[in-house]
Design brief:
9 strands; alpha/beta
Length: 319
Amino acid sequence: MIVTAETYHVPVLLQESIGGLDIQPGGIYVDATFGGGGHSRQLLSCLGPQGRLFAFDQDADAEQNIPDDGRFTFIRSNFRYLKNWMRYYGVEALDGLLADLGVSSHHFDDAERGFSFRFDSPLDMRMNKRAGMTAADVLNNYSEQQLADVFYLYGELRNARQLAARIVKARLQQPLLTTGQLLGLFGVDVPAAASAAAEVTSGAAGAAWKKDMARLFQALRIEVNHEMDALRQLLGAACQLLRPGGRLSIITYHSLEDRMVKNMMKAGNVEGRAQHDFYGRTQAPLAMVGKVIVPTEQEQQQNPRSRSAKLRVAEKVES
């Protein structure tokens, strides 16, 4: 599969997310989710000769999109290690951090990665193809209770227990190794093309099935890549590294990650527990900037992935 910056991923809320950073030309910034590099290139266009941009991505495919710019440093790693890498590069404070969470268009469109139920492909779903467990490992090795917990917590599926029981029963006959096998448990054949997928999921019943499958695949993806733990670590490190006046600009796509981002920006922790000083005054290291921003109707039509996107911006306050 030939990958270019244009086909890898269409950046969501591009102008809004970069604008939220209030970029200082000589500042130091991080793009925690490099992907196709769209946000990074826009950010670089706002920096002066002394500015610096560090970008994270654990997917080797993303390296094909690295810009030829001396101010840019690509870090092939999970963004959860932000603090360690900044220490490695001698960076003590950041002027801003951008993160476009979720999955790149490239991952959904790559039939070999297993992120989409449009294709019959290996149940992989790893962002980092070099290491870690796959979705097949989760489905075949987790207990029924563990599977139910994953589906309920990360997919918010009300029928999590029934789904888990069906999977455990099926794997006794043969291991579940492909998306086709997984969908076959629910009486659906994997379409060979996107047009067939649209036909299968037409109508009210089809729409409900599609929503449940999207949540099931989301739950597996989150578990495989430890996304919630990684986001928790990223937000905590970013909060510590931002200098006073520095900005966080975060794009989320589902309620789980959005809740964590909102809590961190309002309370300084992902649980949303308010901290108080000796006099009972609320203390928080960040202050929300403006309201939640969602894509315009035009952007949603041009880029369907943006339909569930929310942008939140916060600024580090004086300690």
